[in-house]
Amino acid sequence: MQIVTDSGADLSESQRKGLAIHYAPLRITLSGKTYEGENELSGEEFYKLLSETEDYPMTSQASAGDFAKIYQNLAKKGEKILSVHISSGLSGTLNSAKVGAAMVPEADVTFWDTKTLSAAQGWQVQAAAIAAKKGWSLERILERLTLIRDQVTGMFTLKEMRYLIHGGRVSHLKGLMASVLNIKPVITVDIASGKYATAAQTVTFKRAIAQIVELNTEKYGSQKLRTQIVQGLCPDGIEFLKQKMSERLDCFFEETVPVAPALGAHTGPSLTGLISGPMSLFADLL
To answer: One Pfam annotation, family name (predicted)?
Structure first.
């Protein structure tokens, strides 16, 4: 079985190594230049460029044609395809994938809505790929993905609101008030709708990070956690978050990765986030 996903899924190179994962490209336009996929613009390069310009980036999701090309190539191998995607509540990518599959009737494609993004999506992609490599049935893989989707949490915060305002994620008035009052949101993705939701609001960036830790403590308690910090370009946020999580919870930390430009384009380089879930969900898949 082959796994197809999109650029919303954050995984380090070591997490992807040896796995049959195929990425449909995200296109980013910044300062008049368009980049296609990670090969042309890595996450690190994207945030560096973003921090050096006043321009706002534009993103365009993978097209139906992009997916059709991937499915056609994989169908030639005669293998089943599991297509695992960024939340349909945040992007039209899953719909594009379905349209693309309809263009390749010989491809046997099953679709999965992760209802999330970033490393939370990446973990589902990685789990599916490892399980497929182990020979799990499609039904068993989907059962495990359901558990991961239901129990893994992603929370994000940021220092500045201007990218959220520009991208229409918050109204200009609300964003201006938040900026003036120094309010920092803790953003998550609602499991039911797959849309962005505000988990908390507080003043100062460090308090927002502390709130992420508090919310994780309330949710997971003494469980052994798998965690992964994602960021734009915010080393102080990473270190503070890791320190506070280590003080309060029993954590296994995956390698920190740049958050997907699909999200970062709307939040800016100050974004800092945490993906977390029970380690027991992955005991036989890592």
So the answer is: DegV
CA distance 195 to 94: 14
User: Distance between CA atoms of 61 and 63, rounded to whole angstroms?
Assistant: 6
Task: Assign residue 213 the CATH number of its domain.
Answer: 3.30.1180.10
Q: What angle do CA 128, 149, 208 make, to 5 degrees?
A: 125
Q: Report the 10 Å Cβ neighbour count for 203.
A: 12
Q: What share of the chain is helix, strand, coil (3-state, %, to 5)?
A: 45, 25, 30
Taking only the tens place, the pLDDT of each residue in 106-132 is: 999 999 999 999 999 999 999 999 999
Whole-angstrom Cα distance, residue 43 to residue 280?
A: 29
- Count how many Cα atoms sit within 13 Å of the Cα of residue 59 in the half-sphere of its side chain: 22
Q: What is the pLDDT of residue 179?
A: 59
Domain count, the chain: 2
Quick count: other Cβ atoms within 10 Å of Cβ 82?
24
CATH number at 51 reads 3.40.50.10170
Measure the CA–CA gap between 77 and 85, rounded to whole angstroms. 22
**53-66, pLDDT tens digit by residue?**
889 998 888 999 99
Tell whether 42 and 123 lie within a shared domain: yes
As a whole number of angstroms, the distance between CA 120 and CA 243 comes to 21
Q: pTM score, two decimals?
A: 0.94
Give me the residues paired with residue 82 across strands.
Answer: 3, 110
